[in-house]
Amino acid sequence: MNKSTHLLKTLSVLALFGAGPVALLAGSDQSTRITDPKQHQRAGSKSYPYRAKSDYILKELDLKEGDVVVDVGAGDGWWTEKFAKQVGAKGTIHAGEVAEKKVAEMKKKFADTPQVKPYLIPKDGTGLPENSCDLAFFSQTYHHLNKDGHVAYLKHLSSVIKPTGRVAIIEKYTETGLGSGTHGTKLSRLVRQAEEAGWVPVRLELMTGTYHYIAILAQKELFPAEPKKKPKNPKSKAEATGLPRKADAAMAKPLIVDVRTQEEWDEGHLQSAVHIPHDEISDEIAKHAKDKQRKIVLYCRSGGRAGVALQALKKLGYTNVENAGGFNDVKKRFK
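Above: the chain's sequence. Below: its structure in token form.
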């Protein structure tokens, strides 16, 4: 496996974001396998050891010509200078600083680099228009934001950064080396604040030998909820159990209609039948059979009046009607 492949091997899943330490063992220029107990010990510059990893960091940021970047707390403009080369003359680097002296120094330094715009940045935001930036960059400055104002600042960035833009934060991982302190940010705290503000970490990596991590965030809207799976053949509870629904069960049974007179009905009839004299069938059938495809069985004394009723029902549009003949016939069939 070559070096460039190793550079892309990063930690994308954190264990136990909440209480307790966060496991993070990754290197920007090697695999995560620990071959030397000392390989993660800090080396290089005391203040900004991660600057030695600038090639890797710039590769991760993948800036393009014409991009707009806000460098929050640009300091001496070290990163601003590198960004300016990548975005070119068509791009813009807003180099923000809270100290007027540093702004003046950067204006002098970048006098011949028109794409760099040093400015006095507010402490509670960037002061930039909505959807104006492709990247917000923090180099060891995130922990300097107003106390308890980190979530609000990240929410502000969600409006300044374009929908597909990112936030990149480099901070000292305070659970390493000298231990916890104020000049850095616990990774677990950063992740909680980012998630609360509507950002999703797409890259989290401890840069070997620096005690610093890089966190790259993307807007939560880029991660929509997964669509719910729909059953291939939605079934009712009754269908799923193989039992007919009440309405279906009723429809499965034929409607048996006795079309004789009231006197004949009173003398004896099928218990499952309804009584509708043949000369009233056109007016009364809808009360018992609204579905014109339902099976209807008619009977009388010998089948004559049932035949008359059958023709009347057909004229009304009923399509499944049977003349079952006389009373004695249906008694044998429907017990």
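The chain has a mean pLDDT of 84.
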